[in-house]
């Protein structure tokens, strides 16, 4: 019988899901006096997750709806831009979808969190727009869909990826937190060349706190599916002083990344930055991480070394 490479991740997902539920119980959290879900190194105060003050309520998934003019799926797009060297390899036509089911403390795009703040458009229109940039994107680049959380509009993303594969032979990248990963169909994964997989934390309690209520088990479940489908992954991890930078915690994240094995082409350690501060001010919302410093070069180098110690290619 062929060994299942995703079996360890699935088992881990079941474990952290059970532990996360246990921690979510107020009685249990009070009894332990800590947010530790039982995984090694998850110390700190009780850290049940909740959206930061002033945040919009998390968005629910968008059910498929079709454009009356062209018959393709409707989606909500916050903005588009061409990028180089970020959001995937080469030159990218990058589509930021609006709407997110999480409320991360360090989110620097709070303006993308509300789905209906985006422009209602059709998949065909976005595919046609992506076609205008082929001179830049076809040979060394492609299409990236990010957000917000793209999987809230999984049917729309699927239609985009199938379309640009079939019509342009374009490389496709999905930037996701794995929230609502169950909405990603096998067909979508088959048309995804690369996933930028955001691992926000390495234990369920801290994950819930950092993401404003998300579940680490979603990340592990999507990871298991990506292993099965052999989809290449770039892991992303945001290093936030005082929140995610404890050495034991970085080691937990690195262990999870290593579980994904050969599909992980690189790990990007993203130093926390404060570029979103002005957006919160413009939205009239308090900035959730006020007073948090950016990490020093030494802190970033330490984190990189933790990933490299596990044989992973890591860069900042
Ligand atoms: S998943 Fe991304 S867009 Fe959503 S709240 Fe977190 S950082 Fe912001």
What can you tell me about this protein's structure?
Helix 6 (about 185-190) links the parallel strand 5 (about 170-175) and strand 6. This protein has a single domain (about 70-315), classed as TIM Barrel, CATH 3.20.20.70. Helix 1 packs antiparallel against helix 8 (about 215-230), helix 3 (about 125-130) packs parallel to helix 5 (about 155-170) and helix 9 packs parallel to helix 11. It is globular, with a radius of gyration of 19 Å. The termini are far apart. It is built from 11 helices and 9 strands. It is an alpha/beta fold and about 325 residues long. It has a 9-stranded mixed beta sheet with strand order 3-1-2-4-5-6-7-8-9. Iron/sulfur cluster binds near residues 103, 107 and 148. Iron/sulfur cluster binds near residues 107 and 177.
Topology summary:
Elements: H1 7-24, H2 26-32, E1 74-84, E2 91-97, E3 119-122, H3 123-131, H4 134-137, E4 141-146, H5 154-168, E5 171-176, H6 186-190, E6 194-198, H7 204-211, H8 216-229, E7 232-239, H9 247-259, E8 264-271, H10 277-283, H11 297-308, E9 314-315
Parallel strand pairs: 2-4, 4-5, 5-6, 6-7, 7-8, 8-9
Antiparallel strand pairs: 1-2, 1-3
Helix pairs in contact: 1-8, 3-5, 9-11
Bound molecules: iron/sulfur cluster.
């Amino acid at each position: 019988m062929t060994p299942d490479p995703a079996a360890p991740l699935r088992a881990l997902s079941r474990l952290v899901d059970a532990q996360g539920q246990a921690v979510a119980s107020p009685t249990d959290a009070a009894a332990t006096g800590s947010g530790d879900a039982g995984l090694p190194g998850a110390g700190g105060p009780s850290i049940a997750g909740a959206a930061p003050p002033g945040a919009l309520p998390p968005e629910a998934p968008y059910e498929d709806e079709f454009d009356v003019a062209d018959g393709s799926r409707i989606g909500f797009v916050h903005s588009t831009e061409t990028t180089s060297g970020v959001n995937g390899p080469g030159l990218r036509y990058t589509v930021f979808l609006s709407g997110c089911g999480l409320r991360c403390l360090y989110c620097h795009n709070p303006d993308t969190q509300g789905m209906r703040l985006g422009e209602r458009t059709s998949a065909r229109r976005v595919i046609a727009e992506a076609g205008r940039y082929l001179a830049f994107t076809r040979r060394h680049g492609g299409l990236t869909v990010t957000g917000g959380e793209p999987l809230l509009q999984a049917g729309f993303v699927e239609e985009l990826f199938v379309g640009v594969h079939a019509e342009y032979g374009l490389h496709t990248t999905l930037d996701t937190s794995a929230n609502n990963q169950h909405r990603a169909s096998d067909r979508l994964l088959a048309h995804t060349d690369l996933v930028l997989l955001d691992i926000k934390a390495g234990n369920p309690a801290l994950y819930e706190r950092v993401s404003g209520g998300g579940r680490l088990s979603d990340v592990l479940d999507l990871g298991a599916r990506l292993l099965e489908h052999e989809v290449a992954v770039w892991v992303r991890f945001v290093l936030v002083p005082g929140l995610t930078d404890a050495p034991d915690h970085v080691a937990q994240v690195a262990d999870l990344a290593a579980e994904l094995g050969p599909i992980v082409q690189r790990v990007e350690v993203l130093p926390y930055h404060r570029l979103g501060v002005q957006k919160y001010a413009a939205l009239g919302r308090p900035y959730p991480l006020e007073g948090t410093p950016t990490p020093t070069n030494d802190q970033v180098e330490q984190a990189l070394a933790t990933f490299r110690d596990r044989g992973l290619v890591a860069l900042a």
